[in-house]
Model the fold of this input.
Amino acid sequence: MRTTIQQICILFFAIIFQAKAQTGISVSPPRLYFESAAGISNSEKITVTNVSAKNTLDLALSLGDWQYDAKGENQMYPANSLPTSCASWISIKKDDTYFSLGPGERRDIELTITSPTLSKENLAAHTALLYVSQMNPVEDVDSKGANIKVSIRSGIKIFHKKPEATKKKLEITDLKYDAEKKILRLHFENQADIWVDGKVTTDILNVGNGKKTSLSPIVFYTMPGNKREMEVQLPTPLDKGNYTASVLVDYGDSENLEMGELNFSYE
Done:
């Protein structure tokens, strides 16, 4: 009987992967935020922990780029390939680029960003991605009993902005009812110079009987210029009738709110 050996590489953000062999790494925080003027350096630390019960992990650090797609999903690219990249501004001590951690051992890593004195563009916000990659795959068994080798790669998002960039602005550009899929389609745009995060809350009012239903908030993250498409699922079952949907995009204090309202018939 032949044994099938597979190798699995898992990329994850802000979670701990735990295989049957108790192999995994934890990296915190999952995001690093830097703020500095041109030519100024500042540093932040991350902590890498080997949560394995018995395996020593050989780990390597590398840099990449990332951006959100229209649905808010992460898209990864090679370092310095995006106009918004600050990967080339980041320095890491040589001893921290490749190291080993025994079971339960942790290590603090310092990252330093030095923004260029002469910027080639006028962007106020930049990003990069720090990878922590396991270089020695660990043998394990999958749910079907096949032998596999598991290696893990964790991604930490890095954000940098200029000190003068503070204003946040989002704008709802469209709100429609999709009668076929029975969902609300919300479109909004980040019109600020920096990243804007928040949540979308929706209330559904049955015009006929006055019954109001509040939907669970949807968390979102955006970068400057992002045009976001969001599907808001309606509650089920929903009585047939006429409704008013009030959608609130909350991305800060009471002054940072964007609201849309839509009347629709549910058949």
The mean pLDDT is 89.
